[in-house]
Amino acid sequence: MKPVALRSARLVLDQPGETDVDDITRYCRDPLFERYLTTPWPYERKHAVGFLENVVAPGWAEDREYTWALRRTADGPLLGVIGWRSRLGDVGFWLGAEHRGAGLMAEALSAMADWVFAQDVPIIRWECAVGNIASAATARAAGFRYTGEAPMDVPARDGTRPPGWHGELTPISPRTPRPGWPI
Q1: pTM score of the predicted model
Q2: Model confidence over 15-59: pLDDT tens digits?
Q3: CB neighbour class for 54 (10 Å; exposed up to 12, middle 13-18, buried from 19)
Q4: Domain boundaries, the chain
Q5: CATH number of the domain at 6-169, out of 3.40.30.10, 3.40.630.30, 3.30.420.40, 2.20.28.10?
Q6: How far is it, in rounded angstroms, from Cα 153 to Cα 159?
Q7: Percent of the chain's residues with pLDDT above 90
């Protein structure tokens, strides 16, 4: 599939590229990434280059993983990344520390969900490591329904499947926060 750009009220979602390598590297060195995400640790510039070359480009080309960069404008700097994997039907995302707390990721998640559902996908799954309150708050704000705690579907760096919080969104789900979340 050819990459698709998306827009929301405050954001442009397009493809991360070479000009984003330094921002990706800087953001992915956040200590929260070590604790909650599966990104390599310690994160180095070569990991950002590998992400672009081995995940972003082939993901779109092979119609299996769709990754977007979040920006305020089409030519603006990278704020974060969001992606959807068709094999697991799941979403993953992160935002640079200085861009958190303004509801940008929930807005991006909603725009991405609209696009995914337009591809006739019946459900989007979400998970995070237990304790990742920011990720859970984002999924909750975007209307995901909390489905419980269970081992993670995506293995941690060491190959284990630690406890995770799980949720799901369907095309008919209300896009408002729903009760039942552990946060």
Answers
A1: 0.96
A2: 999 999 999 999 999 999 999 999 999 999 999 999 999 999 999
A3: exposed
A4: 6-169
A5: 3.40.630.30
A6: 11
A7: 99
Pull the structure tokens for residue 12. 């442009």
The length of the chain in residues reads 183
Hey, what are 122's tokens? 């019946």
Which pLDDT score is estimated for 148?
Answer: 98
Q: What are the strands of the beta sheet with 90-95, ordered from one edge?
A: 6-7, 12-14, 65-71, 80-85, 90-95, 124-129, 163-169, 145-151
Bin 131: left if φ > 0, else alpha if -120 < ψ < 50, else beta: left
The candidate with the shortest Cα–Cα distance to 167, out of 100, 183, 107, 32, is 183
Residue in 92, 162, 172, 164 with CA at minimum distance from that of residue 128: 164
Residue pLDDT, tens place only, 138-180: 999 999 999 999 999 999 999 999 999 999 999 999 999 999 9
